[in-house]
Design goal:
Blueprint: H1 17-20, H2 24-27, H3 29-49, H4 60-71, H5 75-88, H6 91-105, H7 121-158, E1 163-168, E2 171-177, H8 178-197, E3 202-203, H9 213-218, H10 224-234, E4 238-239, H11 250-278, E5 282-284, H12 303-326, H13 336-341, H14 344-362, E6 365-367, H15 369-377, H16 384-396, H17 405-413, H18 420-428, H19 434-442, H20 452-455
Parallel strand pairs: 3-4
Antiparallel strand pairs: 1-2, 5-6
Length: 460
C-alpha cells in the first residue's frame, strides 16, 4: 500500500481549515511562542526602563528593535525554535535562547543576563496564554458571534409581525411570531456575549512558587508585588497576587464555561432552525452546483445547521473538560494544565466553525409565510386558551354564570381538530357579555399574538 504524505489529523487543520485559520494567529503553537517572546521582551524593556539590577535604560531605537522580535515574529523564528526545542526538550527555555540569540545579533549582549531573570516558565506561559486567548476571543470569536447576532436580529425585526403557530411539547400551542422567537435567542446570546466581553484575563509574575523568593534575594529593596502588578497590567491583563507556581486558571474556567454556554444556546438555535425547515416554515435557497443527496436529486439538506450541532457539541466537550481540569493542580504545581491548554484552540475552533455554519445557514433560507399561515388556519383549537380565560374574567365580573370554563373548553377541544365555523358557533352561544363575545368572534389564530410584535422592541 502506498504511504500517504503527512496529513492533518484534525479536520480543523484539513477539511475545515479555511473557516478557522484566523484562530491560528493566536491559538497555535506559533501564536503561543510569539506571545512568549513578547513577554520576555517586555520584561527586558521594563527592567531596563526602571534600571533594575543595575541596568541602564535602552534607547528608543533599541526598544523598537527589541519589540520587532515579536511584532515581526515569523517562519524563521518558528523554525529556529523547533530546532532548539528538539535539543532542550523545553519550549520556554527554547524561547529564552531565541531571545538571547537575537540580543546578540542586535548588539545588546549587555542585557543578555536579564533575559528570563527571576522568571519561572509559568510566569511566561500564563501571561502568554492570557494574551493569546484574550486576543482570539476579542479579534476572532466574538466578532463572528456578533455577525450571527446581527443576522438573527435583522430577521427578528423583519419577521416580528409574521404570525406562527407555537409548539410546546411539539404540539400546537398559543401562536407567536417568527420574529419574536428569534428575538428570544438574540436576547439570550447577547447576555452571554456581554459576560464574555467582561471576563477577566488574569496573570501572575511571582516566581517558582508564587512567593517572589528569588526576586527578594536578588534585590531586597524592590517592591516586587508592585513591580509584578505594573508589569502584568502593562500587558493589558489583570494581576493575580496570590498563586502557586501557576496562575490558578480560574479565569479560563469561567471563560470556557461562558463560551460553552453560548455553544449550547447556539445548539438550541440550530435544532430549532432544522425543525422549522423540516416542517416547511423556512425554504432553503439552493446553492448553484451543490448536491443534497447522492441519489435523490430533489434534496436540499439543512447541512449547515447539522454541521453546527456536531461542532458545538465537540467544542463544549473540550471546553468543559478544560474548565474542569485547569482549576486543579497538585500542591504547588503539576503539568496536567500544560497538556490540556494545548487544546484551547481546538475547543475554540469547533465553536468558530459552528458559528460560520450557522451564519451561512441563516443566509440561505427564506421564510415561507404561506406555510405559516396555512398551519395557523388548520389549528383553530389553539383559541381554547383565550376563550376559557375570557369566560373566567366574565364570571368574575358577574357577566356570566358558566361553571368551570376550563373543563368546558377541555371537553370541546382536547385531542380534537376544530375549524373556524365550529369555534364561531360555540362562542356565539356563550353566556358572556357582548363586548367579550365580539372580541372572541373577531379572534383568529393569526391574530391571537398577544404582544409578540411589541416584545421585539426589547431586543438589546
Amino acid at each position: 500500500m502506498t504511504e500517504f504524505p503527512a496529513q492533518p489529523l484534525s479536520p480543523l487543520d484539513g477539511r475545515y481549515r479555511p473557516a478557522v485559520t484566523a484562530l491560528g494567529e493566536y491559538l497555535s503553537e506559533a501564536g503561543l511562542n510569539r506571545a512568549r517572546v513578547q513577554v520576555e521582551v517586555e520584561w527586558l524593556v521594563y527592567l531596563t526602563e526602571h534600571s533594575m539590577f543595575g541596568s541602564s535604560p535602552l534607547t528608543p531605537a533599541e526598544i523598537e528593535q527589541l519589540r520587532a522580535l515579536y511584532l515581526d515574529f515569523g517562519q524563521a523564528d518558528i523554525d529556529w525554535l523547533a530546532e532548539k526545542e528538539a535539543v532542550t526538550r523545553h519550549d520556554v527555555k527554547a524561547v529564552e535562547y531565541l531571545v538571547r540569540h537575537r540580543l546578540s545579533e542586535l548588539g545588546l549582549d549587555r542585557i543578555a543576563e536579564l533575559t528570563h531573570i527571576a522568571c519561572t516558565s509559568e510566569d511566561i506561559n500564563n501571561l502568554s496564554y492570557a494574551l493569546t486567548v484574550s486576543q482570539a476571543v476579542r479579534a476572532i470569536w466574538l466578532p463572528k458571534l456578533r455577525l450571527v447576532l446581527d443576522s438573527l436580529r435583522t430577521k427578528a425585526v423583519d419577521f416580528r409581525a409574521v404570525p406562527m403557530l407555537a409548539r410546546t411539547h411539539g404540539q400546537p400551542a398559543t401562536p407567536t411570531t417568527m420574529g419574536r422567537e428569534l428575538a428570544v435567542t438574540v436576547y439570550r446570546l447577547e447576555r452571554i456575549a456581554l459576560q464574555i466581553e467582561a471576563n477577566e484575563y488574569l496573570g501572575k509574575f511571582s516566581g517558582a512558587t508564587g512567593t517572589f523568593a528569588a526576586h527578594v534575594v536578588a534585590d531586597p529593596d524592590a517592591d516586587w508585588p508592585a513591580i509584578s502588578r505594573e508589569f502584568v497590567e502593562g500587558l493589558g491583563l489583570d494581576w493575580n497576587p496570590l498563586t502557586t507556581q501557576i496562575e490558578s486558571h480560574d479565569w479560563q474556567a469561567e471563560l470556557y464555561g461562558k463560551i460553552s454556554h453560548a455553544n449550547r444556546v447556539l445548539h438550541n438555535l440550530a435544532t430549532d432552525m432544522w425543525t422549522y425547515i423540516s416542517i416547511g416554515y423556512f425554504r432553503q435557497i439552493p446553492v448553484a452546483g451543490a448536491t443534497g443527496s447522492s441519489t435523490m436529486p430533489h434534496k436540499v439538506n439543512p447541512i449547515r445547521f447539522e454541521n453546527a450541532e456536531a461542532n458545538l457539541e465537540l467544542s463544549s466537550a473540550i471546553l468543559d473538560s478544560l474548565a474542569a481540569t485547569l482549576v486543579t493542580s497538585r500542591l504547588q504545581r503539576d503539568l496536567t494544565d500544560s497538556s490540556a491548554q494545548r487544546n484551547i484552540g481546538v475547543g475554540f475552533g469547533h465553536s468558530l466553525l459552528a458559528l460560520d455554519n450557522i451564519l451561512g445557514g441563516l443566509g440561505q433560507i427564506d421564510l415561507a409565510e404561506d406555510v405559516l399561515a396555512a398551519d395557523l388556519d388548520h389549528n383553530w383549537e389553539v383559541l381554547a386558551e383565550a376563550i376559557q380565560t375570557v369566560i373566567r374574567a366574565e364570571v368574575t365580573a358577574g357577566r356570566s354564570s358558566i361553571e368551570d370554563p376550563y373543563a368546558l373548553l377541555k371537553e370541546l377541544t382536547r385531542g380534537k381538530r376544530l375549524g373556524q365555523a365550529e369555534l364561531v358557533e360555540f362562542v356565539s352561544r356563550l353566556d358572556i357579555g357582548d363586548a367579550a363575545k365580539q372580541r372572541l368572534l373577531e379572534l383568529t389564530p393569526a391574530t391571537y399574538l398577544g404582544l409578540s410584535d411589541d416584545l421585539v422592541d426589547y431586543l438589546p
